[in-house]
Amino acid sequence: MREYKVAVVGATGNVGREILNILEERNFPVGELRLLASSRTAGTRLPFRGKDILVEELDRFDFKGMEIGLFSPGAKVSDIHAPRAAAAGCVVVDNTSRFRMEPDVPLVVPEVNPGAIGEYRKRGIISNPNCSTIQMVVALKPIHDAATIKRVVVSTYQAVSGAGKAAIDELFEQTRAVFLTGKEVPPKKFPKEIAFNLLPHIDVFTENGYTKEELKMANETRKILDPRIRVTATTVRVPVFNCHSESVNIETEKKLTVAEVRRLLSAAPGVEVVDDPTTATYMTPREASGKDATFVSRIREDESVENGLNLWVVSDNLRKGAALNAVQIAEELIRNHLG
Ligand code: 3JN
Prior knowledge:
The chain is α/β, with parallel strands linked by helices and 339 residues long. It has helices at 14-25, 75-87, 131-147, 165-181, 212-224, 258-267, 285-288, 319-338, and strands at 4-9, 30-37, 45-48, 51-57, 68-71, 91-94, 125-127, 149-157, 230-234, 244-252, 271-273, 294-302, 308-315. It is built from eight helices and 13 strands. Strand 1, helix 1 and strand 2 form a beta-alpha-beta unit.
């Protein structure tokens, strides 16, 4: 089998490191691997297949000869370097929000809309959706295919790992300080204290009162699944280290029973149903961490409307929500497009 020249951009971040783990775990056909980051972290080394690989400076890197770029350096950096890589012939899979809503850039979740990948030829860029969107659409897709979803109301419970390494440290340090000394630690990464708390505030507020994270979920879901679906979101940061959870309320055109939903989801790619009310069986973020699946629990009919459903959806935001989805896109790309 042919091997590919792969660049990982933003290699030292939470998602970058997870991309390396997943390339190794899934035995992705990497011939040459180049790791790139800002001048702040360039010069460090990261392990891959038993070797320590030098992290090089992105600003000075020439993408010529590279075939696949897995980018998670932040939207501002992707804005500059993703088009530069694409112009050099390196197909970019970008984890940031920078290109997601551009009409000539495909926004892809391989279990949901793999056919969209072919559109990469227009700009040389494929966008990876926001983590909260990815796990939701994986669960919605089989329901939409069977019964046509009209409207979705979602509330999220998002782990601090989604906000980066400094955010993980902040939850840890604040929790320890409150527990050991009873003292408050002033917030740095988050707008208020996150330990023993909840913040209904992810990304920045916009003019209509929604945060950008909430608008991302609505707009991206429509682009990936169906522009006719109405979506409203409330996104909440919780003091959980890893894995996002979501309470998802759905209205469909056609009626589905709980048994039918369970059957559809059990057969769906990437989904694992963990749901048995008789034994109080459901998924939690601690148990989903490090796993690949999107877990669905608490499947119920919403009896307050005609055709309503409630789901509890949990997934590892650094894996399926970011790194794994990006590597799955790259797998699809080499299987059907790059040759
Ligand atoms: O906070 C989370 O749980 C997810 C964060 C996602 C995120 C954080 C900073 C910048 C994004 C994203 O993927 O939408 C971005 C961005 O690319 O805008």
